Amino acid sequence: MEALLLRVPEAAARLGVSRAKLYELIASGALPAVKIDGCRRVRTDDLRAYVEGLAPSQ
């Protein structure tokens, strides 16, 4: 069963970006995140929606 929430390093690894870049995406509002007891988590559905919303490069 797939986890519903991912830690920042896990979400960054799935996207193939650094932790710093993932925090930038969260801070800019491009990728929603939730906070649980002071720890950021990214919902897997939000991660998928972010990727699906990316425009292909030309």
From TrEMBL:
InterPro entries: DNA-bd_dom_put_sf (IPR009061), HTH_17 (IPR041657), SinI_DNA-bd (IPR010093)
UniProt key word DNA-binding: yes
Keywords assigned: DNA-binding
Chain segments annotated as transmembrane: none
SUPFAM superfamilies from the UniProt entry: Putative DNA-binding domain
Domain Helix-turn-helix residues, every copy: 5-53
GO molecular function: DNA binding
Protein name: DNA-binding protein
UniProt source species: Nocardioides immobilis
